[in-house]
Write a structure and sequence with these properties.
about 45% helix, eight-stranded mixed sheet, alpha/beta, 11 helices
Length: about 280
């Protein structure tokens, strides 16, 4: 496969499973492999920022080392700050103090970078970019990975937003609509996976003022499984290339087991290296 000016990169989310994505992207950076367009969701959006700023192992540090040191996933954080993932550590201290984000490299990167959010008012996906206003960029990344029920709604441009994976977990159609083909997808589930989570009508107790969001949440599993079916067809037709975990998945959306996260990162790095060596 040749990476040309119309080749896109699509990054799935998946909470802590995103450590796989950080491994693949670190391998890409090792081999100086970059794309003209990247569209990313949730954890993929956060990992993609370190790829856009050309900072190898930064995302790995946040997913593994920082989790071990700061324990930023906790019920205490959910009760005190409204999010099970400590937003102060992740969106304030991490990019500004712990491992400073290279804003200049990010700003000057010619790659078009879109992060997917869910608009709570419309129940539809928003594809947002920001290179100049760092506060807005941070808000978009935070909104994109604000998991429903365990994170607060984040406002971007005054609009309430939540995790983009609610309505567009794997935005390959967005990449194609933007004129990019073929596309490389970094996924966080093995081929053949389908979600068996039960669907349920979200009661007004949750997000009562956002009826369209509740509808989207009620059909999230169906929408995700349809996306997985589409992706496997596109892969079989040779329209996309997928890099995905091959080992049995040990890591769930929320995971505190550092050894499991390390193994998943190493698998991602190895598969990213393998991909680069085929180019």
């Amino acid at each position: 496969m040749q990476i040309g000016r119309k080749t896109g990169l699509v990054l799935e989310g998946g909470g802590m499973r995103g450590v796989f994505t950080s491994g693949v992207l670190d391998a890409f950076m090792k081999h100086d492999l970059y794309f003209p367009y990247v569209v990313a969701v949730s954890a993929g959006a956060c990992n993609g920022l370190s790829y856009m700023s050309h900072q190898p192992r930064r995302a790995r540090f946040s997913n593994i080392d920082m989790l071990q040191k700061y324990g930023y996933i906790s019920l205490k954080s959910l009760l005190v700050q409204g999010s099970i993932f400590d937003p102060n550590i992740l969106y304030e201290r991490f990019p500004n103090e712990i491992v400073p984000f290279d804003y200049d490299t990010y700003r000057n990167n010619p790659t078009v970078y879109e992060m997917v959010t869910t608009n709570c008012l419309t129940g539809r996906a928003e594809y947002l970019s920001e290179k100049e206003d760092i506060q807005r960029m941070t808000a978009i990344a935070k909104a994109s990975s604000s998991l429903p029920y365990v994170a607060q709604i984040t406002y971007v441009d005054g609009v309430p937003m939540l995790d983009g994976g609610i309505v567009d977990s794997i935005p390959v159609v967005r990449a194609v609509d933007k004129g990019y083909s073929p596309n490389v997808l970094i996924l966080t589930r093995n081929r053949g996976y389908r979600s068996s989570e039960p669907e349920f009508k979200v009661p007004r107790l949750f997000y009562g003022e956002y009826p369209r969001l509740r509808v989207a949440l009620s059909h999230h599993v169906e929408a995700y499984n349809k996306q997985l079916e589409l992706i496997e067809r596109m892969e079989d037709w040779g329209e996309i290339i997928c890099i995905r975990p091959e080992r049995p998945m040990e890591v769930e959306r929320i995971c505190l087991d550092v050894e499991k996260l390390e193994r998943l990162y190493e698998e991602g790095f190895a598969l990213g290296e393998k991909f680069c060596q085929t180019l």
